[in-house]
Amino acid sequence: MISDRMLAALNKQIGLEGYASFLYLSMASWCDKEGFEGSAQFMHRQSDEEREHMLKIFHYIYEVDGHALTPSIAQAPHDFGTIREMFEEVYKHEQKVTKSIHDLVAISLEEKDHTTYQFLQWYIDEQREEEALMRSILDRIKLIGDGPQSLYYIDKEIEKINKAELAAEAAGEEV
User: Fold this and answer.
1) Which residue in 5, 76, 103, 122 has its CB near the most CB atoms, within 10 A?
2) What is the DSSP-derived secondary structure letter of residue 147?
3) pTM score over 0.85
4) Per-residue pLDDT tens for 58-87?
């Protein structure tokens, strides 16, 4: 049985993961509007992945005899300035999610909830990978530059990253 405190914290995380899914979906739409096809595909996949993260917690709560709550999701922004600003926002959001996961781990340790602690280990690894990926994208954008002529190359780099991630997933590898 899961404690009320842990249950409330996990339900809050469901909301954060749901917001991330909608935020990335909004970013995908913005990318489509701006002509960044590769980045739009990447953000669509990121949105789907965040929804999977949300559902994973949802199902876990049921497994431990809790009641998962469907969150109210705040409206995501619709304009992101530049592709660089958009990915800076993604990186900041991933850092926020990482902090939240670490807070969940702290609660599980305080409460000696070893089951939840074990469950959260996957999220710790996932967040490390997500932050590293977003940092590498920002590094590429800085290297290429984000002037008008560079935008095409940035989008092609994001498209290559997305294809590599999809291939790794299809092969059953950790991404």
Assistant:
1) 76
2) S
3) yes
4) 999 999 999 999 989 999 999 999 999 999
Give the integer Cα–Cα distance in Å for 5 and 57.
15
Number of domains, the chain: 1
In a domain, 175, yes or no: no
Classify residue 71: in a domain, yes or no: yes
90 located within any domain: yes
- Cα separation of 118 and 164, whole Å? 29
Distance CA 121, CA 102 (A): 10
CATH number at residue 141: 1.20.1260.10
Looking at the chain, how many residues does it have?
Answer: 175
Interval 102-113: pLDDT, tens: 999 999 999 999
Q: For residue 75, is it within any domain?
A: yes
Instruction: Tell me the backbone φ, ψ of residue 171, rounded to 5 degrees.
Output: -85, -5
Contacts 24+ apart (CB under 8 A), 97-101: 97/16, 97/17, 97/20, 97/127, 97/130, 98/127, 98/128, 98/130, 98/131, 100/12, 100/13, 100/16, 101/13, 101/127
The predicted-structure confidence for 32-53, as pLDDT tens digits, reads as follows: 999 999 999 999 999 999 999 9
Say how far apart CA 49 and CA 58 lie, in whole Å: 14
